[in-house]
Amino acid sequence: MRKETTMKFKTIFVLLCISILNACSQKSPHTYNSTLNLKQVMEWVIDPSADVVWDSVKYITTSSGTEEISPKTDADWESIRNSAATLIQAGNILMLDHLAKDNQQWHEFAKRLSTNAEVALKAAQNKDKDALFDAGGNIYNACKACHDKYANFDKPQN
Ligand code: HEC
Fold first, then answer.
1. Ligand 1 within 6 A of 77 CB?
2. Could you tell me the distance, in angstroms and rounded to a whole number, from the CA of residue 82 to the centre of ligand 1?
3. Atom of ligand 1 nearest to the CA of 109
4. pLDDT tens for each residue of 55-69
């Protein structure tokens, strides 16, 4: 009786090992949802998130002096952090095969977006408005570098 039980467990153990081995040797299919084209990723994912970062710290100069706009509440800082996080991930999304225009410089520009957005994210976590302002400028340069090379805004886009 005891022996039988041990055998049973052994069999289960062996079967378990085989199924784990099978699972590991199978390559994951890597099928991505490609519903959004590049234009939609730009307009619906990247642009609104960048706007949150850019609008967060501003200096408005009028004849009566310079007014500073900066995040006030915890909720303000959190929303900036979330948008910066979206931009970090957007850099990764841009490297997906169906969006990337090539395997070299495109990837560098996409990484540059993520890296600068990471600085913005840290600035938001530290509630450091100066660092956030600078990171916003560097994010803008990352957008512009890629647009200068790959986007032709004069032509009708699909
Ligand atoms: C890795 C390259 C790359 C990066 C980085 C990038 N873009 Fe773009 N973007 C493009 C290309 C290419 C187009 C034109 C694509 C099209 O319209 O089909 C474009 C188009 C756009 C458009 C216009 C969409 C349209 O055609 O109407 C907006 C808005 C935009 N980008 C915003 C941004 C912002 C904001 C950033 C930075 C926060 C950014 N992009 C970063 C490559 C990039």
1. no
2. 20
3. 1
4. 999 999 999 999 999
**Which residue type is seen at 54?**
W
Q: Helix, strand, or coil here: 82?
A: helix
Ligand 1 mean position, distance from CA 59 (Å): 26
pLDDT (tens digit, 9 = 90+) per residue, 88-112? 999 999 999 999 999 999 999 999 9
**DSSP secondary structure letter of residue 96:** S
Residue carrying structure tokens 């495109």: 106
In DSSP terms, which residues pair with 158 in a beta bridge?
A: none
Side chain identity at 157, as an amino acid letter? Q
| All domains of the chain in start order, with CATH | 38-150 (1.20.120)
The whole-number pLDDT of residue 8 equals: 65
Q: β-strand 58-62 against 65-69: which pairing, if any?
A: antiparallel
Max Cα–Cα distance, the chain, nearest Å = 95
> What's this model's pTM, rounded to 2 decimal places?
0.83
